[in-house]
Amino acid sequence: MTINKCLFPAAGYGTRFLPATKATPKEMLPILTKPLIQHGVEEAVEAGITTMAIVTGRGKRAIEDHFDISYELENQIKGNSKELLLDEIRSLISKCTFSYTRQIEMKGLGHAILTGETLIGDEPFAVVLADDLCTNHNADGVLKQMIEVYNKYQCSVVAIEEVPEDKTYKYGIIDGDLVHGRDDIYRVHNMIEKPDPKNAPTNMAIIGRYILTPDIFNILRSTQAGKGGEIQITDALMQQAKNDRVVAFKFKGKRFDCGSIDGFVEATNYFYNL
What we know:
It is built from 10 helices and 13 strands. By secondary structure, it is of the alpha/beta class.
């Protein structure tokens, strides 16, 4: 089956960016003039996906308004040079379908993905965490690379990158064996959510890009709350991994952790200097 839909979990509070995120969704924080979530949608479109499913929460109305026409604004700038500044977002609005559902309680990424089931249905799908901003300048984006991997292996795919060994406590960490003939794809046999560095099996961290098969929803329904009292997607993926149904892909490109202030500033400087 082809990947036709991309899920964006976007209900979190963004507490690391308070007070900016008190009334503004963290997904709408801009890198230069473009919100984080728009970068993610453009990456999905480049991968051939035009159906966007967004899991929101209270105070996230700005996301819906962004992917909609603003008649008053467009009438105000019609005919002057500023009209061109809306070309990219207009293009996305015309190409894509956006649907939304609300996550009533914040109970982890696994719960957010399960909340999106009503928008996804019974088909494989991509997941993008907008605060992980990925770029592969003038080459295939991360999601497009991952879809090629999915087409070959027909199972869930997680994007990974090597992180400093003393930072493993911030990530889901995988352990696995290289697929024969590849140096960038691992058959996963273990995953640990945010392990202490001394307990981490590797330093290969899962970042905010996934291709998931639809059986993940039934697994999530029966997944107990884990670390932090949250339903962890890594716990659900571990159930698939027991049946050799997960591969990890070391993508080509650069990733910025825009959920942190340091990463946000780094991304801003990078795009400013392009």
